[in-house]
Amino acid sequence: QVQLVESGGGLVQPGGSLRLSCVASGGTFSSGPMSWWRQKLGKNRELVALIVGGADGDYYLDSVKGRFTISRDSAKNTLILQMSSLKVEDTAVYYCRYLDNWGQGISVIVSS
């Protein structure tokens, strides 16, 4: 079973940037969609960005379009979420997902 470990979260001021990484062990990101989700306090988990690859376009939650970019480094078995122009409402625990496998989540706090 693939294990996913996120890193790169933390506290950032509004307008700042963070780069989340998700490294897979026990397997590879060989095929299939990979995604980032987030869960705000008291809310359901929501899909933030999804990458399929090939001719299929990536998906982004409307509220993050133009600010977040999902990508993968297959050589490093890593899924990346580059987040810029962060807003207070981006505060959440972020999870990476590959097929039925989830990371443990990492906290992102946007606050002045």
What does this 3D model show about the protein?
The chain is mainly beta. Helix content is 0%, strand content 50%. The strands form 2 sheets. Strands 2, 4, 5, 6, 9, 10 and 11 form a 7-stranded mixed β-sheet that branches. It has a 4-stranded antiparallel β-sheet with strand order 1-3-8-7, with no helix packed on it. A hairpin with a 2-residue loop joins β9 and β10. The protein is globular and about 40 Å long. The model has no long low-confidence stretch (mean pLDDT 92).
**How big a fraction of the residues is strand?**
over 45%
What is the overall number of helices?
A: 0
Structural class: mainly beta
Number of strands: 11
Question: What is the CA-based Rg, rounded?
Answer: 13 Å
**What characterizes the major β-sheet?**
7 strands, mixed
Helix proportion of residues, in percent? under 10%
N- and C-termini, Cα separation: 40 Å
What is the helix/strand order? EEEEEEEEEEE
Mean pLDDT: 92
Task: Give start-end ranges of low-pLDDT stretches.
Answer: none
The backbone outline, from C-alpha atoms, is globular
